[in-house]
Amino acid sequence: MNIIKKAEEAYSLGLTKYTPAAGMIDLREEVCRKFKKDYNLDYSVRDVIVSSGAKQSLTNALMAIVDPDDEVIVPTPCWISYIEMIKLTGGKAVLVEMDESNGFDLDVDKIAKHITPKTKAVLINSPNNPTGAVYKKQDVEKLGNLAVKHNFYIISDEIYEKLIYTEEQNCCTASISPEIKEKTITINGVSKSYAMTGWRIGFAVGPTDVIKAMSDYQGHTTTSPNSPAQYASIEALRNSEEFVQEMKKEFDKRRKYIVERLNKMEGIKCYEPKGAFYVMPNIKYFYGRKYKDFIINNPMDMCDYLLEESRIAVVTGAAFLAPHNIRISYSNSMENIKTGMDRMEEALKKLK
């Protein structure tokens, strides 16, 4: 890959000035080509906005469509920022819990029960952070048909789209039908698929009027994203497929290893995630158990215990509205993962 070289070239040539608020035309054209190549979707540059990370793209989308007292339905567990972003608009996050026993699959029937005249959008994320769930096409299509029927948007966060480890392909919501496409705002970027987290380039595609509103909002907040990072992102989207596939194979090895190790630990239940790079083991078995001054009553207690006793860092599932789980990332070296699993296993054995 020549991503770094492209950024260096931009700096050396003085390509560091403002770009259009919605992002460079060349990059937006590359995003259009990406959606055509991957999903046979036709977008024009007017349907694309480039932002300082996918989180800004998502915030822009919510600001563009949500008014005070509108409702946005969010399947949980979910990324922690979603709820706070919705609050910023004056809207209300309606949280709908997905079933862990089904691998946190999208339960559209459950979501349908929460649709009201105030529903402005449903915000979905597949592959999912924190669960690693990959939503089935028939479920996404069912949700899309509800969006058309009840006239709400689907905000589809597909930032982990390239990191799917089963035979299933990413179901790009907008690709299901022309009618669903008109009700879909797709969020994506280069952070996860191209390992460019710190470059802060995200993008969104959607209905022209929505993208125009998002661009207006961005123009009055941050203006354009970092210029050299935009040049580098063109290279990532254009010439990085081989790298992405190699990275995916390595993540898959780590995924299989960590799930196998966790499920061999007494008291741990961990379903196999299909995408992203997280696992969400259930640790409820350990409630009431203790070692020295540590008593485990919730996931945060487990996080503190593992950090102090074993020097391994995990995240409480409560942060993602998963009340009996912890989240572990396998975006680390296999050597560190093996060491971490060994330490975790020894620490759990001490809890009585």
UniProtKB/TrEMBL annotation:
Keywords of the record:
Aminotransferase, Pyridoxal phosphate, Transferase
Might you give the EC number(s) for this enzyme?
A: 2.6.1.1
Among Gene3D superfamilies, the record links this protein to: Aspartate Aminotransferase, domain 1 (3.90.1150.10), Type I PLP-dependent aspartate aminotransferase-like (Major domain) (3.40.640.10)
Q: Name one GO biological process term.
A: amino acid metabolic process
* Name of a matching Pfam family: Aminotran_1_2
The Aminotransferase class I/classII large domain extends over 5-343
Molecular function terms, GO-annotated: L-aspartate:2-oxoglutarate aminotransferase activity; pyridoxal phosphate binding
Q: Which cofactor does it need?
A: pyridoxal 5'-phosphate
Matching entries from PANTHER family are given as: ASPARTATE AMINOTRANSFERASE
Q: Which family does it belong to?
A: Belongs to the class-I pyridoxal-phosphate-dependent aminotransferase family.
Record-given protein name: Aspartate aminotransferase
Whose protein is this, by species? Answer: bioreactor metagenome
